[in-house]
Specification:
CATH architecture: 3-Layer(aba) Sandwich
Strand content: 15-25%
Largest sheet: 5 strands, parallel
Low-confidence stretches: none
CATH class: Alpha Beta
Number of helices: 10
Bound molecules: 2'-deoxycytidine-5'-monophosphate
Shape: globular
Structural class: alpha/beta
Distance between the termini: 10 Å
Mean pLDDT: 93
């Protein structure tokens, strides 16, 4: 059967990665979480002390480090899920905390960072059979993707989900802080000069505020089957 590229974009914490992972498992496709790649670069910058007190990043030093920086994925032997690695170290857990979340937007706005990661993402999709989630997958990384989905939900629903996710992982945080972070990231992601978050004209929109996980999972599988049958 012909393999396709599935691009899943949308706001932060709206369940994109859960949907994308489910579809990849269903279709036996590779799953790539591009947010994890931006987060890994942010973790690198935090560890190297590249952020000023006002939250801005030392652009020159980060750009100079980029060519030697390795961000890739290994597959967890137990769950079968990809784990992001920074220079060979599995940093999946470290990149999910509020510290990385609150520093990632300025890093993701740097053209040199976007160019380097976009190039790598395009290589990952060369053989198709891939489900990639992010902000610019259907618009910049794979404008030719056969199936594009733009996912959204209200900020409050998304903050509540992130809050519960962190709690379940034993990393409690205040709901109000998370809501503020979600709103700030929406603003920055949609207003940055390079590859801003926007809906591709040919994307299907899914507002999942009132959907169960099972409903959204089925919705995506149905769209996928339609596309594969039609391609
Ligand atoms: O999906 P996420 O919350 O893990 O993404 C982390 C950050 O990375 C988010 O602020 C937006 C940015 N990002 C991006 O600019 N482009 C992508 N393709 C994926 C994520």
């Amino acid at each position: 059967m012909k393999k396709i590229i599935v691009a899943i974009d949308g706001h932060s914490s709206c369940g994109k990665s859960t949907m994308a992972k489910d579809l990849a498992r269903y279709a036996h496709y590779v799953y790539v979480d591009t947010g994890a790649m931006y987060r890994a670069v942010t973790l690198y910058a935090l560890r190297r002390g590249l952020f000023a007190a006002d939250g801005s990043v030392d652009r020159a030093r980060l750009e100079a480090a980029l060519p030697g920086l390795r961000v890739d994925f290994l597959t967890d032997a137990v769950t079968g899920l990809p784990q992001v690695c920074l220079d060979g170290e599995n940093v999946e857990r470290q990149i999910r905390g509020l510290e990385v979340s609150s520093h990632v937007s300025p890093v993701a706005a740097l053209p040199a960072v976007r160019e380097a990661l976009t190039r790598q993402q395009q290589l990952m999709g060369q053989r198709k059979g891939i489900v990639m989630d992010g902000r610019d997958i259907g618009t910049v990384v794979f404008p030719e993707a056969e199936l594009k989905v733009f996912v959204t939900a209200t900020p409050e629903v998304r903050a509540r989900r992130r809050y519960e996710e962190l709690l379940a992982k034993g990393q409690p945080a205040a709901y109000e802080d998370i809501l503020r972070n979600v709103q700030e990231r929406d603003y920055i992601d949609s207003h940055r000069a390079v590859a801003p978050l926007r809906q591709a004209p040919d994307a299907l929109v899914l507002d999942n505020s009132a959907l169960t996980l099972e409903q959204q999972r089925q919705w995506l599988i149905d769209r996928f089957e339609e596309r594969v049958a039609g391609s």
